[in-house]
Amino acid sequence: MKKIFYLLILMCICTTAVIACSDGNDDPADGDIENSETDGDSADVDDTDGDGTEEDASDGDMDAVDGDMEEEGGYPPLKCKTPEPLGDGPYFTDVTDQYGIGRDGLAVDGNRMAVVDFNNDGFADMLVHNTGSNVRDDLEADPPKRLKRMLLNVKNPNLPVGRVFEDVTDTYGYTQTRDGQLGRAAHLAVFGDVNNDGRLDIFSGTYIDANNKPTDAGDRSEILTGKLAGGFALAPQSDTTPSKTEFPSTTGASFLDYDLDGNLDLWVGFFYKQYGYLEGLQNRLYKGNGDGTFTDVTDELGLTTFADTFDEGTNHKPSYGVTVCDVNDDGLPDLISSTYGRQFNELWLNNGNGFEDISQSSGFASDENLDYSDNEFYRCYCTVNECDPDPGNPSVQCPSPAGSYWGSTDENEWRLGGNTFVSVCGDWTGDGLPEVFNGEIQHWHIGQSSDPSSLLVNETDENGVLFNRPGRDATGLNQMHLVASWNEGNMSAARFDFDLDGYPDLLMGNSDYPGTFAMLYRQTEDGVFEDVTKAGGANHQRAHGVVAADFDRDGDLDVVIGSSTARESPWETNETHIYRNEVGNKSNAARITLIGKGEGFANRSAIGARVKITTGDRTQTEWIDGGYGHFGLQSELALTVGLGEACSIDKLEIRWPNKDLSVQTFENVPANYHLIIEEGGEIQFEDMLAY
Asked: What is the C-alpha separation between 487 and 171, in angstroms, rounded?
């Protein structure tokens, strides 16, 4: 009773309504696991993988049921919402200026975004990188030319309710250099707690263009560790920082814990060795040492590729993004490389002792359509060379000489795949296995052999990992082409449940070509997607870079979209825009934050944890990821899970990424709260709405 008394006093003095608080200790639970014994709401732990304007603060209709707080160890009262029909929209509203990052504010430019809470105040912050290579920021220019912006999500001092972004790029030290300057060249970032001290750290990736060596400032990829007083410091250099004599074209990174030792590791992708030539660079896996340093274990774990083994499919490939995805749901994270140049995508299966290349056997490498007869450059080639059968006359103005855009390698299977920029991992079908959505660039004149953007459905069973490609007509992920000479530029994508109905949706970036814009697809109860782009309101022109986060903590996910200036773009700069979700918080949902115990247990960021949410006869499966895709996209580490009409979770199951893959289970968990769970501990409840 004494604990309840102190809790009630704390509730009276806190500005944020906290329903159940921790004991104030920032460290995770001490390893003792206790089960709740009140009212049948149990928290069970097994050592095996068991299967078992600002918006109105009221958020629409919400009824509190059973307003009396339960006994110690129990759950807070139910808070139920009655979802409303979506209506005609818009579902999203551009609030860029309200957040202070528009042209009259911070004028933020960039399209490579990581959105995480990097100061631990409970609100999603943002790190944005602009395009460019080699060069540092020009801080002497008037105004200074910045290619990256670190933005803190703070309370708007001019409004009673609302948020605004504050630029902390310099004060947080993100662009510090080894020679004591600011403005370090960097092009992507992903976040994770690499030293398990409770503060997020950063892998800051640098793309060095070997075709422009004279502009190389000498900066290379770095690890930055979070400081107790806020901000970041350069970690001791280790294998993740190449030498100045190397020219790494870093294009993606993702944190993971491949050996489940509680220390985060790092998967990094690289592009061509030199753009204009077929040879790529070796993608690399680095083992985390738990102190901010990393050791290259690529060769040791069987991930070696080679310079020229194209026909065998074991060559270095030009990766344009990397993703971590537990494709067979065995708790061991597997590795994906999204490959450009119509070469094979890579899928490496983690067998516990190393990695096995299953790209071809799983059907992941590319689709089966190898017919290049409608490739316009091949048709041009055939106007001056004998081709059997004759593919017909070209529909384009042929180059001079006519066959110069078709080479001897272009008929090979390893050149008839896709231009994959992003691979998004997640369970769309509700069977507990993760699908992969591949976002591609595809051109009308290259023809059908070029893989289209598509959802790869996971059909893994006891016989092995297998992906099926049902096609766009079956999934509903068709794209509208406004002109005959169309181009699809799906270089980014985000999986999230925008209307919180319990069925994950897809926001697809589409960029770099005339007539391209962001597209929103809503998944229906039968598993088919419907195009709701027009009603969505976030059909941002030349959308290059999309991520989701609950910036205002109202319970639903907002989106950030970057802009491309390529090819007669309507944008003068790579503007970054924020679109507020206007509809999601009318449904029931849960926000879930997991905290691991660190080395020897689950990593503090809980990256790789699997969360199953059962309501009625439907189970959703989510994983916490450490960044993915083209130039390091990253959404919040906290999960936002839609529950639709259900105002409680029948069963909440967490599989922790530790050696035992231990499982915790909670039952009858009320919705519309922020659930904070430390490994082995009980649920702490916070109000969803915080502002």
From this structure: 42
Residue with tokens 């960039």: 110
Q: Is the dihedral of CA 618, 624, 630, 635 positive or negative?
A: positive
Sign, CA torsion 414/416/421/424:
negative
In this structure, what is the dihedral angle of CA atoms 647, 648, 649, 651, given to the nearest 10 degrees?
Answer: -150
Cα separation, 239 vs 292, whole angstroms: 11
Q: Give the integer Cα–Cα distance in Å for 185 and 215.
A: 11
* Among 128, 139, 129, 278, CA closest to 207: 129
Q: Is 210 helix (H, G, I), strand (E, B) or coil?
A: helix
Contact (Cβ atoms closer than 8 angstroms) between residue 622 and residue 642: no
Distance CA 19, CA 675 (A): 10
Q: Is omega for the bond preceding 401 within 30 degrees of 0, making it cis?
A: yes
Residue 615, token pair as written in the block: 């309501």
H or E, element range at 168? none
Residue 379 burial by Cβ neighbours in a 10 Å radius (0-12, 13-18, 19+): buried
375 by DSSP, 3-state: which?
Answer: coil
Which pair of tokens denotes residue 673?
């709260």
- Pairing status of strand 519-523 against strand 505-508: antiparallel
Give the amino acid at 108. Answer: V
**Residue the block writes with tokens 């309200």:** 98
The model's pLDDT over 372-431, given as tens digits with 9 standing for 90+, comes to 999 999 999 999 999 999 999 999 999 999 999 999 899 999 999 999 999 999 999 999
Residue type, 372: Y
DSSP 147-166: SEEEEEEEE-TTSSS-EEEE
Q: Count of CB atoms within 10 A of residue 171's CB? A: 12
Give strand pairing partners of 654: 611, 664
What is the residue-averaged pLDDT of the chain?
90
Neighbours of 509 (CB within 10 A): 32
Burial (CB < 10 A; 0-12, 13-18, 19+), residue 145, is middle
Mean pLDDT, contiguous 10-residue spans, the chain (691 residues): 36 37 36 33 40 38 43 78 95 98 97 97 97 89 94 95 96 96 97 98 96 93 96 98 96 98 98 94 98 98 97 97 98 98 98 98 98 98 96 97 94 97 98 98 97 98 97 96 92 98 98 95 97 97 97 96 94 97 97 98 98 98 98 97 97 98 98 98 89 57
Whole-number Å distance between alpha carbons of 253 and 284: 10
Q: In angstroms, how far is the first alpha carbon of the chain from the final one? A: 31
| CA-to-CA separations, 655 to 49, 87, 610, in angstroms, rounded | 7, 37, 5
Tokens describing residue 495: 């999986």
The DSSP 8-state label assigned to residue 587 in this structure reads S
Report the C-alpha gap between 269 and 336 in whole angstroms. Answer: 9
Contact between 129 and 187 (Cβ < 8 Å): yes
Model pLDDT for residues 28-62, shown as the tens digit of each residue: 333 333 333 333 333 444 443 433 343 333 344 44
